[in-house]
Amino acid sequence: MKKNITRGVVAAAGLTGAVAMGLTSLAAGGATAGPLPGGTVTRTLVDGTPVTVQLFDEYVNVQRAVTNVQTSREVWVSGKVKVTVGGKAEGGSVNAGYLVGCQVNFGASAEGGAGISQGFAADSQPAPSGEVGAGFTLGPGQASYFPIIETTSGTDTAYSDYKVNSYSFKGKSGGVVYSQEKFGMDGCAGYASAKAKIKVTVSTDAVKGVITLYGKPFSIG
Fold first, then answer.
1. By CB neighbour count within 10 A (0-12 exposed, 13-18 middle, 19+ buried), where does 36 fall?
2. Cα–Cα distance measured from residue 208 to residue 143, given in angstroms and rounded to the nearest whole number
3. pLDDT per residue rounded down to tens, the chain (221 residues)
4. Euclidean distance between CA atoms 61 and 163, whole angstroms
5. What was the pLDDT predicted at 202?
6. Nearest Cα to Cα of residue 131 among 152, 101, 153
7. What is the DSSP letter of 138?
8. Residue from 221, 167, 213 nearest 194 by CA
9. Would you say the C-alpha torsion 34, 59, 101, 31 has a positive or negative sign?
10. Residue 134 is inside which H or E element, if any?
11. What is the CA radius of gyration of the chain?
12. Which residues have C-beta within 8 Å of that of residue 159, sequence separation ≥ 6?
């Protein structure tokens, strides 16, 4: 079935030039913005297939909601994801988004971290709290997932029977570029934070591998 990317996200097969960027401090306040360092991870599947995942040119802009309610925030995120595969792999799929938490400590150990799982069953993915780009409400200790990709199973979104939050590519490289993707959060009276989560699935005749790259956590007020 044909998949349509329905938001302001561009799938790119030839992303190049990962940029090293310093982290601008994002303290709580009326409006904060700055670049984030992204991250890179390279893993080798059990059959010897190398997979490299890069997140770069990541940028965040955090502001109070137009309603000027202290428990609400509006966030715009931008970035580029590049995936390179070797060996017998011919393509893969990219699932990209942001974990968002209210009074949830993502922890220094998670900054720029990465993991890998391999087998013949896909790993689990946190379910979106609502439509992509929509706001969500989080109480203390709660977290949610904001996907930056929304594709549909048909050529007409009005008649699509399901939605997926990934982009599939063929060949040895592929990626996603997203710009000013917006989400809103309500109901969080304490501190709030978020971090990128990039999940890449690569399959060969011998194995299915899932590589996860986490970006650096940042404050959203």
1. buried
2. 28
3. 444 444 445 656 555 433 333 333 334 344 578 999 999 999 999 989 999 999 999 999 998 766 667 778 889 999 999 999 998 888 999 999 999 999 887 764 333 344 443 332 223 233 333 333 457 788 888 888 999 877 665 555 555 555 667 889 999 999 999 999 988 888 888 888 999 999 999 998 888 999 999 999 999 87
4. 27
5. 94
6. 152
7. -
8. 221
9. positive
10. none
11. 17
12. none
Residue that is written with structure tokens 């890998």 in the block: 116
Nearest to 34 by CA among 65, 73, 76: 76
DSSP state of 219: E
**Among 80, 92, 88, 91, which Cα is nearest to 38's?**
80
Taking alpha carbons only, the member of 10, 67, 63 closest to residue 219 is 63
Structural tokens at position 61: 């802009």
Token pair, residue 79, equals 């970035």
| Coil/strand/helix, residue 158 | helix
> Any idea of the CA torsion for 170, 176, 182, 185, to the nearest 10 degrees?
70
Instruction: Report which DSSP code applies to 40.
Output: E
Our CA angle for 129, 133, 135, nearest 5°, is 55
> Phi/psi zone of residue 107: left (φ > 0), alpha (ψ -120 to 50 degrees), beta?
left
pLDDT of residue 134: 56
Give the type of residue at 178.
Y
- Which residue type does 33 have? A
**Residue 212: predicted pLDDT:** 94
To the nearest 10°, report the CA torsion of 94, 97, 3, 155. Answer: -170
Residue 16's contacts (CB-CB under 8 Å, 6 or more residues apart) are 82
